[in-house]
Amino acid sequence: MYRVAPVAVPDWEIVIARHGATDWSRAGRFSGHRDIPLSAAGRAQAAELGRALRHPQPEIILSSDLGRARQTAEAIATAAEIDRRQIMTSTALREEFLGSWEGLTRAQVAAASPDGFARWASGDIGSFDGREGLVAVARRAVPVLVAHTTGLPRSSGRLVIVTHANTILALAGSFAGMRHERWADLPCPAPGQAMVLG
Question: Where are the active-site residues found (predicted)?
Fold first, then answer.
């Protein structure tokens, strides 16, 4: 069993933003590590999210290295009048690797792997069908959050992380110190939306 103590980030406002929509998300396709760009609607969502997060100005913007997250992070930086070159990207903030599910629709996965699809639909966050699993996602993503908040001088204290749905669940569950079996029950922002941890 994977348990974590609550992640301590005193005096920081941690905002976790989900990237804007893509054509694949609209079609119900699993993206995982596939580098899918934002759709026109996703670009509009990212611009609106940027306007919502510009005050107080983010001190740090961390982003998954995948294009859909980077495009969203760039919209946030533009709205906050931060040089885009200050965005820090990390492969550790990528979406969960989804194995053979990547690029498939829910119906295609249900037909190809009825048992795996049933596990996923019931909230199972484990590693199956070549999926990475959310515990593994937490093990790579949490250290990025800790490294960018621990012992660093701060001014506004707002850190914005731009990432993906399953990575958000892993970070939020770890931040709260929840048992991983409950992470699937956590709320997750819609595409182009954000939540504050803590």
Answer: 19, 95
